[in-house]
Amino acid sequence: xxxxxxxxxxxxxxxxxxxxxxxxxxxxxxxxxxxxxxxxxxxxxxxxxxxxxxxxxxxxxxxxxxxxxxxxxxxxxxxxxxxxxxxxxxxxxxxxxxxxxxxxxxxxxxxxxxxxxxxxxxxxxxxxxxxxxxxxxxxxxxxxxxxxxxxxxxxxxxxxxxxxxxxxxxxxxxxxxxxxxxxxxxxxxxxxxxxxxxxxxxxxxxxxxxxxxxxxxxxxxxxxxxxxxxxxxxxxxxxxxxxxxxxxxxxxxxxxxxxxxxxxxxxxxxxxxxxxxxxxxxxxxxxxxxxxxxxxxxxxxxxxxxxxxx
Length: 310
Ligand code: HEM
What we know:
310 residues; 13 helices; binds protoporphyrin IX containing FE; disordered N terminus
């Protein structure tokens, strides 16, 4: 009887709530409503994405548009809507992806340092760990946009004119075949890796939807989000490395003594992947596993101190 009354009470309350919402829908929301935080877990990822986008945009704009204008009086402003934006998107995407996995590495370092899982993480690390899903989803969003922008490259009129000009110059030089073997391989490989990376990111995004993640066991969810996440980061990093190919040693890439964006883009992912490989070394991996299963270095030392005193 009790639960039934409660159920009716609950229904009445819900109905009352509905009526109330209906009645006050067009009124100014209450003070409490206004103070409610909007998308709290998205604040940090959005701030970082906006700052990284703005800085990368300014950097690329100066290098790819202003530099040719100042040095050769070349008008490259047409590059802004697609070419410049398509440098910003992948840089932000891969940085956000690296930021999904960096806090896990810092947390492992923290636990190894204190030898316990019972010591609380600092507030900033806790907040960062809690917004990893949002970092990942934003990274996927930027990567999808990057893929769309990249695939529309050959559709652009500027590209068609350039292609015609190259063909004309080739005829002038009486060159029959423009095929450059290593360039062909470079592009086939990096585009393929990019598509694979995006595919893995899509799986990660789908499995982070609550209805899907709730249908998985903790082990399955952890396996997908951790192992496949690192796989995505690895694929995207190799994608950028293969895109760079021999540009690493090309002095012309260092416009106004600044490094090209791909070097900046893969700096953080490489650090994250290196740290993860170090943490996978058997001695460290076993210790972390022990700590996460509840082993505590401090109680262990206390125990040995006690037994030595006895
Ligand atoms: C369908 C999937 C993808 C395609 C077709 C693709 C294609 C491309 C292309 C054409 C470029 C050269 C851009 C340029 O000329 O400036 C490039 C660069 C790059 N891509 Fe992708 N990509 C894909 C997915 C991804 C993903 C998932 C990531 C990482 C999250 C990524 C990260 C990068 C990076 C960091 C660069 C170097 C940008 C630079 O600084 O110049 N790409 N990609």
